[in-house]
Amino acid sequence: MQHSSRYIVLFALAVCGVCSIFVAVSAVSLKERQERNKAIDVQSKVLVLAGLMSEGERLSGEEIGARFSQSIESKVVRLATGEYDETIDADRFDQRSAAADLNTSREAPPNLAKVRRTPHHAVVYHVRDESGSFKSLILPIQGQGLWSTLYGFIALAPDANGIQGITFYEHGETPGLGGEVDNPRWKSLWIGRKAFGESGEVEIEVKKGTAGTPEDDPYRVDGLSGATITSRGVTGTLKFWLGEYGFGSYLNQFRAERGI
Ligand SMILES: Cc1cc2nc3c(=O)[nH]c(=O)nc-3n(C[C@H](O)[C@H](O)[C@H](O)COP(=O)(O)O)c2cc1C
Is residue 11 part of a domain? Predict the structure, then answer.
């Protein structure tokens, strides 16, 4: 039997209506779970950088949360002043959305990392060892490579200068070229280097070619071969986020707190 055009259009509309209701209900009901998973993912990256979880270790969300809260405190800071802001819940704060929102961010001056806006607030992580002594300060960083924005963290020693590690957990650089930012060997080259020179300026950089040992060449890390643009992006990212428009004010506050 042949159906009329009216029947076909109404049938198609009904199918579209049912599907859109299904999609809308799923999106709303899964939103909370997605946000929880995102938070767990960030916690696991911070744990790995803090040396409290090994890369590839499989833990449940609850185990990650428990391990995180045992040794790590997330704190929200106001980037312009460097003060802590206790009115914002660090576990729920979405720094990327804040940076994208004109009301919760400010324009950044031209910079090598090509950061266009900085959020008014950012999350920092304080890591303590079993005895409660301060072990690391972990800061979120992000900047443009060749193809993509690289998102990562840097771990600083309690003197807010020594580098304990770096990680980029999200990027779209070419595997084998810029994607070598994920290479454990390259990441290990950062350990024991220094972020700031004698004058207090951000000195750390990824050079073209090979750097010396951390003792002889504390401010330089080997370039990624065939990936000068990504390497430059990493340098720019650190110069920006450790500098005046990034965590500069917070780092001054942190040093003052610790009598450095
Ligand atoms: C397919 C393809 C992928 C590339 N991916 C990257 C990359 O991820 N990062 C990067 O800096 N350069 C990448 N390059 C190379 C850049 O175009 C540029 O030549 C390079 O950054 C220069 O680095 P070099 O002076 O170390 O050779 C890629 C080139 C090609 C053809």
Answer: no
- Count of the separate structural domains present in the chain: 1
Instruction: Tell me the pLDDT tens digit for each residue of 146-180.
Output: 999 999 999 999 999 999 999 999 999 999 999 99
Decide if 193 is inside a domain. Answer: yes
Q: Is residue 18 part of a domain?
A: no
CA of 206 to the centre of ligand 1 (A): 15
**Structural domain includes residue 65:** no
Residues with CB under 6 A from ligand 1: 146-147, 173-174, 177-178, 225-230
Predicted TM-score (pTM) above 0.85? yes
Index of the ligand 1 atom closest to the CA of residue 231: 11
Residues 6+ apart with CB under 8 A from 144: 113, 114, 115, 150, 233, 236
Q: With a cut of 50, which residues of the chain have pLDDT below it?
A: none
CA 135, chain centre distance (Å) = 19
CA 93 to ligand 1 centroid distance, Å: 35
Q: Which domain holds residue 137?
A: 71-257
Q: For residues 242 and 248, give the distance between their C-alpha atoms in angstroms, rounded to a whole number.
A: 6
